[in-house]
């Protein structure tokens, strides 16, 4: 455990995406944020919003409303909640329903990306998500007849196949030797990053990614393509909803 770090904090959620509770020690704390030695709060990034949750200490609860990324990961307390002093042992807990919904949604976007790339060869130009709703933008010049239903059916066929979703870390050179590892129109992996985290929907889609995901496509649920929007210059926005 603890192979991923941000500043002084070991990022537990990238090693174990199912982890929801853990013990930690406060390294720094004020109204601006709380720095822990170990944290499973996803800080946000790659379109995935930050986790919510609580810190429990000495019979007190501090609610966490988000995370700020700088030299350290600073957990942002809800205004007015007590701040644990430096050196305090705390029990951290991520709000499970929100995180699990975001994991399902993030995996759904990768699956959508894989289907559109496989069937239409289109790169991604942007994306965003909230729990169980998301959008992804593609460089797609022409929308074929029946595209909305075709995409929805193809996505749900991949969910039914229950493809494994594997996460691994590779040295940069090895990662970038994988064909089409970067599905976005621009490479968003900073040049100083030496090890690249890879999310692989086995047999469908392999991408560089720093987010959290479910373990197989069946765990996503069902994808509904809610809307296809024309954003001009050949860019198409696909809006999806995730249902059980």
From TrEMBL:
Domain spans labelled Alanyl-transfer RNA synthetases family profile = 1-244
Q: What is this protein called?
A: Alanyl-tRNA editing protein
Q: Which cofactor does it need?
A: Zn(2+)
User: Cross-referenced PANTHER family, in alphabetical order?
Assistant: ALANYL-TRNA EDITING PROTEIN, ALANYL-TRNA EDITING PROTEIN AARSD1
Domain of life, per the record? Bacteria
In which broad location class does this protein mainly occur, judging by the first location in its UniProt entry? cytoplasm
Q: Native species of this protein?
A: Actinomadura keratinilytica
Keywords from UniProt, A to Z, are: Metal-binding, Zinc
One of the Pfam families matching this protein, by short name: tRNA-synt_2c
Q: Which SUPFAM superfamilies match?
A: ThrRS/AlaRS common domain, Translation proteins
Q: Which PROSITE patterns does its entry note?
A: AA_TRNA_LIGASE_II_ALA
Q: Is Metal-binding tagged as a keyword?
A: yes
Q: Where in the cell is it found?
A: Cytoplasm
